[in-house]
Specification:
The complex is a heterodimer of chains A (759) and B (289).
Chain A (H helix, E strand, L loop, with lengths): L17 H6 L14 E7 L5 E7 L1 H5 L3 E5 L11 E4 L2 E4 H8 L4 E2 L5 E7 L2 H10 L1 E6 L6 H5 L25 E9 L2 H7 L2 E9 L11 E6 L5 E5 L4 H12 L6 E5 L15 H11 L3 E4 L2 H7 L6 E9 L5 E13 L6 H7 L9 E9 L13 H19 L3 H8 L18 H9 L2 H4 L7 E9 L4 E9 L5 E5 L7 H13 L6 E5 L16 H28 L6 E4 L2 E4 L10 E2 H6 L1 H4 L4 E8 L5 E12 L4 E12 L6 H20 L31 E5 L21 H13 L10 H11 L1 H5 L1
Parallel strand pairs in A: 1-14, 12-13, 16-17, 20-21, 27-28
Antiparallel strand pairs in A: 1-7, 2-6, 2-8, 3-7, 4-5, 9-17, 10-15, 11-12, 11-14, 15-16, 18-26, 19-20, 19-25, 22-23, 23-24, 26-27
Helix pairs in contact in A: 7-8, 10-11, 11-20, 15-16, 19-20
Chain B lengths: L5 E3 L4 H10 L4 E4 L5 H6 L7 E4 L9 E4 L2 E5 L4 H5 L2 H6 L1 H8 L4 H4 L4 H6 L7 H7 L3 E6 L2 E6 L4 E3 L2 E2 L6 E7 L6 E8 L10 E10 L2 E10 L6 E2 L1 H7 L6 H14 L10 H25 L1
Parallel strand pairs in B: 1-3, 2-3
Antiparallel strand pairs in B: 4-5, 5-10, 6-7, 6-10, 8-9, 11-12, 12-13, 13-14
Helix pairs in contact in B: 5-8, 9-10, 10-11
Classes of the chains: A alpha+beta (759), B alpha+beta (289).
The structure holds flavin-adenine dinucleotide.
């Protein structure tokens, strides 16, 4: 499938971390321990919304075995400053309040105090001895309720941004965003068909298997070491530095192997607390969340409502599109509103677009990034509406999308004009696929939907070192959540012309490599891959210098080919090629160790497009949906390691199907989460899905030497609507609110056919 | 929280019952532990003494007796599933026990634990109720025998007295033309808790249903024996009219709650749906006997 001229790129060798993972040798967050360590535990608010009048920690502190107790008093307050974290923006004033509640507890599960004790049992006893005097306040959980005039207000200072004139009264609407291209009113006047619907989705958790865990050790001289399961150890360093006023270079953060993150491990919860407890006690402090804490206190993706209106000509040409998106930010402002708005119509070349977005706070945990943050929510609405349009026009859903597909040169509603993209190729690949050409089986229906994600570049550093025997270490600084070490090693091997197993990729701690932005935004294979390629190029430049010295010729007279230095031509002289091992062996005489370095801010991340097809059956009596066949096609740039690209597509589909069918947060009347575990927070299990077929469409990104585009986020965007569209075609009932769980779907089917309910 | 717990594994029922009675409410029987250990880790129970019954032969064996079967209360699901004669005679009971958890859970989980944990959604119980199973109980005052449906008192509560242990289940002999079936509804395909569970046990002779029993789970505080549904089936040719009447009887006895696993309306509706589907499976199986 890949360009045939590559030797390593496009092959499927074992991942460098594979053996450790299958033998249990790999160390995850909770596997780090130090002699004399204490166990830290967090006291969490039992109330959805309460003012904290006072906290009495004296009885807890007096319990034998308790070494320290901290509350918000132990963390300096922070300025109202917004900093980027992964694909989202956070305000430091809010971050410190999310790490430890200050004036108010804003959701059930919000941290209000923490202890460090000699054992977990003592730590738990101590939590029970902390007396918090709460003034319980009225709470609000849902977006639309939170937007109402009489809703309980979470933050007295929150004045809606983006509205002119600025409101004079605080509300839960943190921000309004407007995004316009062309003139929608004029566009709708040309429309022969207009479809208008309102949709809603529930917040969903990233559902990583590994709970948050950290070990922090603060020494007497002020130096701090932290081990953590995170998608960005440089971000952990940055947050701990700012939140606790310690210089960044004094903090060394080592990432563990990571048992999933999906965006949810781009923020800090435990690390600043463990560090503060360690500073106070002078001992290492280990903290591990329970699954229940993960659900109650770590960030889900937002739920939201989306109203969509699309106008088209009878031939299928879309002339105007409009949507209004309102997203739950959780307890603090900052939902992925921008991406939700900008991605909404990004797949299509439409002259007239208007998008309005609202960022809304409510008494739920603060949202965090989750694969293509925001995009699945607007895609659920837009792609469902397009399906209704296709049915209305009697058009094949792929043809409708082809008719309107964005191409090179299409100007997006949010500004940029697309360079080379592969949406048309992806649609065509699906149209000619065995799956799409097969007849739909009796009792089944077929759904189609598309999805878009920008993909991200940003800051990366990398180094390449030649060992004395000529083997190579490639050092980068992004936790590997999707097989990135294998891809980095493949690109390094290709560039260098040596075998994959001669290249060992490692992930360095924050003190051992330059800055790297988080593993997120599908950026690592693209941006860090670019840094690795550049570091290898830098090393090759040095290798040529060493060969030139050996041969006593100019460095320009040396070329690097197939892992060897060779004379550039016969006029240079007759020299035997020098291998990496030869050059390494003589390095001491030619100038010392041979290394390469690179640092960059990667531009030109190529956007990705996905098109999914699903065949499913709906049990009309029970509302149970059974997925029979699923194909995910995507423009993946170049598939460096195709197995891990396929894995990304399959994983995104599974998470999207869970979002569509069963996942939801269930709150009781008091605002307490009723399903904080995998039994009742229903992510799909393996037996719920067939083997997911993938089609890798390779349209190389012109801004990367090997054509890499991010691939990890696009695949969670289409499944919600693909499933919904198939359900609608199977039953004649269009579900607008997620999840389409058996009780909800059954109720909707009964409402549509009253006879059945009576029967 | 796991505090200090004493563990013992006696080899006789007298010892086990004596220790359980002596523990004064702080003792717990351990069969497979797939409920007990989970509850201990969650801090829901913290027993002072754990009495493992897996060394008591009578509780860990399956015997054919008097045309029926005696299944030790601590026999694991996997062992039950491998018993060919039992599978042949009581496919519904076996499939209900085998639905519990996953492969790993099946290696441990027992029908006795499923019953005594007293969840209204316990999968094996509606099938055992439909099968007219009785349980043998051993306690400080000796032995008694009761119908399985008399064990549940409410969610998490049983009618067992202090020191009493469920020793075994007895399944009666089979008349020709008999078969059973169990169906549950879960939103996923496995690793979930029944929203509704329904066991149906039939005898069909010459196309007419001559006896029937129906057990319903997860629709009330305890697993229910639905006699009206059985009456609607008995004497019929299991035609649509009889099935509709039996489904209606199932819906009528439902006293479910609205919770995270389903609404009252949904559970009630599904009770009727599962009755019809389980009856169809049992009928098809009975035809093969
Ligand atoms: C991952 C997972 C999935 C599960 N899936 C299901 C499912 O699909 N369906 C379902 O119904 N359940 C399910 N369960 C619950 C559990 O596995 C079952 O209830 C199982 O049958 C319990 O049997 P056990 O032998 O493990 O019981 P134990 O945990 O050993 O005991 C359960 C309770 O009964 C008491 N007890 C046990 N035996 C006796 C006895 N002979 N006399 C008196 N008291 C006794 C114990 O003291 C304890 O209170 C699941 C559990 C897990 C962890």
């Amino acid at each position: 499938m890949s360009n045939g001229s590559y030797k390593w790129i496009g092959t499927r060798p074992n991942r460098p971390d594979g053996a450790d993972k299958v033998t249990g040798r790999a160390r995850f967050g909770a596997d780090f321990n130090m002699p004399g360590q204490l166990i830290g535990k967090v006291l969490r608010s039992p109330h959805a919304h309460a003012r904290i009048r006072s906290i009495d920690t004296s009885a807890a502190a007096a319990l034998p075995g308790v070494k320290a107790v901290v509350t918000a008093q132990d963390f300096p307050d922070q300025p109202n400053v917004v900093v980027p974290t992964g694909e989202m923006q956070v305000n430091l004033r809010d971050v410190t309040r999310n790490v430890m509640a200050r004036e108010k507890a804003l959701y059930e599960g919000h941290a209000v105090a923490a202890v460090a004790a000699t054992t977990e049992a003592v730590a738990r006893q101590a939590l029970a001895l902390i007396k918090v005097d709460y003034e319980v306040l009225p709470h609000v959980i849902d977006v639309e309720a939170a937007m109402k005039d009489d809703a309980p207000v979470l933050h007295d200072h929150l004045i809606t941004e983006g509205v002119k004139p600025a409101p004079d009264k605080a509300s839960n609407i943190a921000k309004r965003m407007d995004n316009v291209k062309g003139d929608v009113e004029a566009g709708f006047r040309q429309a022969e068909v207009v479809i208008e619907r309102r949709y809603a989705t529930q917040p969903v958790h990233q559902g990583y298997i590994e709970p948050h865990a950290t070990l922090a050790s603060a020494a007497e001289d002020g130096q701090v070491q932290i081990w953590s399961t995170t998608q960005g150890h440089f971000q952990v360093r940055g947050f701990c530095s700012r939140l606790l006023g310690v210089e960044a270079s004094q903090i060394r953060v080592t990432p563990s192997e990571i048992g999933g993150g999906f965006g949810g491990k781009t923020v800090v919860y435990l690390e600043p607390v463990a560090m503060r407890l360690s500073q106070k006690t002078g001992k290492p402090v280990k903290m591990v969340m329970s699954r229940e804490e993960v659900f109650r206190a770590s960030g889900p993706a937002p739920g939201g409502t989306v109203a969509v209106k699309i106008g088209a000509r009878r031939d299928g040409r879309i002339v105007a599109a409009e949507c209004t998106v309102a997203l739950q930010a959780g307890a603090f402002p900052g939902s992925p509103l921008g991406p939700a708005c900008w991605t909404s119509f990004a797949c299509y070349d439409i002259d007239n677009i208007k998008v309005v977005g609202f960022d809304v706070v409510s008494n739920r945990p603060k949202v965090a990034a989750y694969r293509a943050p925001g995009a699945p929510i607007s895609a659920w609405a837009v792609e469902s509406t397009l399906d209704i349009l296709a049915q209305e026009l009697g058009m094949d859903p792929i043809d409708l999308r082809l008719k309107n597909a964005a191409k090179k040169g299409t100007k997006t509603s949010y500004g940029p004009t697309f360079d080379t993209i592969g949406f048309v190729e992806t649609l065509e690949a699906v149209k000619s696929s065995a799956h799409y050409r097969s007849p739909v089986k009796p009792g089944m229906a077929r759904g189609v939907a598309a999805g878009f994600w920008f993909n991200v570049g940003a800051d990366s550093s990398a180094a390449a070192h030649v060992a004395e025997d000529g083997t190579v270490t490639v050092i980068s600084g992004n936790p590997d959540i999707g097989g990135s070490r294998a891809s980095l090693a493949l690109m390094a091997a290709e560039e260098l012309g040596v075998d994959y197993d001669k290249v060992r990729p490692v992930i360095a701690d924050t003190s051992s490599i330059g800055f790297n932005f988080v593993t997120g935004g599908s950026r690592v294979t693209f941006a860090t891959g670019l840094a690795v390629v550049n570091s290898v190029k830098d090393m090759i430049r040095e290798l040529k210098v060493r060969a030139a010295k050996t041969w006593k010729v100019d460095p320009e007279a040396v070329v690097w080919e197939n892992g060897h230095a060779r004379p550039a031509g016969s006029n240079v002289g007759e020299f035997e090629p020098l291998s990496l091992a030869d050059l390494a062996a003589s390095a001491g005489r030619t100038g010392g160790p041979i290394n390469g370095h690179a640092q960059l801010n990667a531009q030109g991340a190529g956007p990705g497009f996905g098109v999914h097809v699903v065949d499913l059956a709906v049990d009309r009596d029970t509302g149970i949906v059974t997925i029979d066949r699923y194909t995910a096609a995507q423009d993946v740039g170049t598939a460096i390691h195709p197995s891990y690209v396929e894995g990304q597509l399959q994983g995104g589909v599974v998470q999207g199907v869970g979002w569509a069918l069963n996942e939801e947060y269930i709150y009781n009347a008091k605002g307490k989460l009723d399903n904080p575990g995998f039994l009742d927070y229903r992510m799909p299990v393996a037996s719920d899905l067939p083997m997911i077929e993938t089609i890798l469409v390779e349209v190389p990104n012109p801004h990367h030497p090997y054509g890499v585009r991010g691939v990890g986020e696009v695949p969670i965007v289409p499944p919600l609507a693909a499933v919904g569209n198939a359900v609608a075609r199977a039953t004649g009932v269009r579900m607008t609110d997620l999840p389409m769980s058996p009780p909800r779907l059954s109720a909707a089917l009964d409402a549509a056919t009253p006879r059945m309910a009576a029967e | 929280m796991m505090n200090d717990v004493r563990y013992m594994a006696p080899s006789t029922l007298d010892e086990a019952a004596g220790a359980l009675a002596a523990a004064n409410g702080a003792g717990r029987i351990l069969a497979g532990g797939t409920d007990l250990l989970v509850q201990m880790r969650a801090g829901v129970v913290s027993p002072g003494v754990i009495i493992d019954v897996k060394k008591i032969a009578e509780m860990t064996t399956i015997e054919a007796v008097g045309g029926g079967f005696r299944i030790g209360a601590a026999v694991s699901g996997a062992v039950v599933g491998e018993h060919a004669a039992l599978r042949q005679a009581w496919p519904g009971v076996v499939e209900a026990i085998n639905l519990i958890g996953s492969k790993q859970i099946q290696g441990r989980a027992s029908a006795g634990g499923n019953l005594c944990n007293a969840s209204p959604a316990a999968d094996s119980v509606p099938a055992l109720v439909a099968a007219a199973a009785t349980v043998t109980i051993h306690g400080p005052k000796g032995r008694r025998e009761v119908p399985v449906e008399k064990i549940h008192a409410g969610p998490g509560r049983t009618t067992l007295e202090r020191g009493e242990i469920v020793v075994s289940f007895t399944l009666p002999p089979r008349a020709p033309g008999s078969a059973d079936a169990y169906l549950r509804l879960i939103p996923r395909t496995e690793m979930d808790i029944a929203v509704v569970g329904c066991g149906v046990n039939l005898t069909v002779q010459g196309g007419t249903c001559t006896s029937a029993r129906v057990g319903l789970g997860a629709v009330a505080p305890t697993v229910l024996l639905v006699e009206d549904a059985a009456q609607a089936l008995i004497g019929s040719r299991l035609d649509d009219k009889a099935l509709d009447a039996a489904a209606a009887a199932c819906r009528a006895v439902c006293k479910p709650i609205n919770d995270k696993r389903g609404t009252i309306a949904y559970r009630t509706k599904i009770a009727g749906v599962l009755l019809k589907r389980a009856t169809a499976i049992a009928l098809e199986r009975a035809g093969r006997h």
